[in-house]
Amino acid sequence: MVGLGRMGSNMTRRLMRGGHEVVAFDVNAEAVAALRAEGAVGASSLGDLVAQLEAPRAVWLMVPAGKITGATIDELTPLLSDCDTLVDGGNSRWTDSIERAARVAERGITMLDCGVSGGIWGLDKGFCLMVGGDADACRRLEDIFTTLAPENGYARVGSTGAGHFTKMVHNGIEYALMQSYGEGFELLHSSDLDLDTHQIAEVWRHGSVVRSWLLDLAASALEGDPDLAEIAPYVEDSGEGRWTLEHAIENAVPVPTIATALFARFASRQDASFSGKLIAALRKEFGGHSTHKPSGE
Predict the structure, then answer these.
(1) What pLDDT is attached to residue 295?
(2) N or C: which terminus of the chain carries fewer CB neighbours within 10 A?
(3) CA-to-CA distance for 16 and 129, rounded, in angstroms?
(4) Any catalytic annotation for residue 174?
């Protein structure tokens, strides 16, 4: 496992709980030491990590998308051998994954792109895995995937690029769902009927047609802070929503709800709203993402 942030560290722990031996590396030596104390085999460099693995190797990347992922793959490629497999579990753009897979294939290395969902809850509940790439390589690593995922939470969704494309669309849907909850709770919060938003979230969780895990998380966020006073209505976006919209425009596919949700995130950085507070709170609840404090604090 290369990259021991919120996701990579918990994936390492879940693999170890499932009986796998994991060699772990991160540029942060303290992160490596923490997992070594829990039973992982620590590595001091990418070269050290590769040297401690028996061929055919499987190296899973959980590093930030973009230049860091590309540079890590470029550094690993000459260290690996024919029949080794790289898994990019970050949120890479699917077109980048296709290009990178073709490049490492010239050296006999297989690369799988794996969309991962589950956030900070994945350690105990499992990670939903959407894998794209060579079918034989997927079968070879299936015990890893099924250990990380809950029951029925893993699938090879298609050829190279399909895993990250599927995760991109997944995140576009997530944007729209959170925006809908945010707007609904904005209406509740603005009412002069003295409504208890936490109580309403709780009752909706039981039997209503809008119940979902995101609603469970909304109830959790509202329980301790019903006015979300400790959270600024400033909602970040990590890229996948923009890519979803770009692909939709390029292919003339109408996605007005996802587009509106993305633009609402941009607007949240200019205007104060309870809707923005709830969406920011949901991102913190499911993914451990940071929130902004209200101005003046």
Answers:
(1) 64
(2) C
(3) 18
(4) yes
Q: What digits encode the pLDDT tens for the residues 1-47? A: 999 999 999 999 999 999 999 999 999 999 999 999 999 999 999 99
Q: Which conformational region is residue 43 in: left (phi greater than 0), alpha (psi within -120 to 50 degrees), or beta?
A: beta
- Per-residue pLDDT band for 296 (boundaries 50, 70, 90) equals low
Evaluate if residue 194 carries a pLDDT over 60. Answer: yes
16 neighbors 22 (Cβ within 8 angstroms): yes
Exposed / middle / buried, residue 139 (Cβ in 10 Å: 0-12, 13-18, 19+): exposed
Joined together, the tokens standing for residue 70 give 């590309």
User: 21, 167, 202, 240: which one is catalytic?
Assistant: 167
Q: What letter represents residue 71's amino acid?
A: A
In a 3-state reduction of DSSP, which class is residue 128? strand
Tokens coding 168? 């991109």
Give the sign of the dihedral formed by CA 259, CA 262, CA 264, CA 270: negative
What does the block give as tokens for 259?
Answer: 């587009």
Residue 167 annotated to the active site: yes
Q: CB neighbours of 39 closer than 8 A, spacing ≥ 6?
A: 16
Q: Say how many C-beta atoms besides its own lie within 10 A of residue 28's C-beta.
A: 12
Asked whether the beta carbons of 67 and 48 are under 8 A apart, the reply is no
Among 75, 174, 284, 285, which one carries the catalytic annotation?
Answer: 174
- pLDDT range class, residue 286, cuts 50, 70, 90: confident
- Kindly compute the dihedral angle of the four CA atoms of residues 132, 135, 141, 146, in this order, to the nearest 10 degrees: 70
Cβ–Cβ < 8 Å for 123, 104: no
The pTM of the full predicted model, rounded to 2 decimals, is 0.89
DSSP state of 80: -
pLDDT at 176 over 80: yes
Describe the chain by its helix, strand, coil percentages, rounded to 5. Answer: 55, 10, 35
In whole angstroms, what separates CA 59 from the centre of its chain?
18
**CA 207, 213, 215, 221 torsion-angle sign:** positive
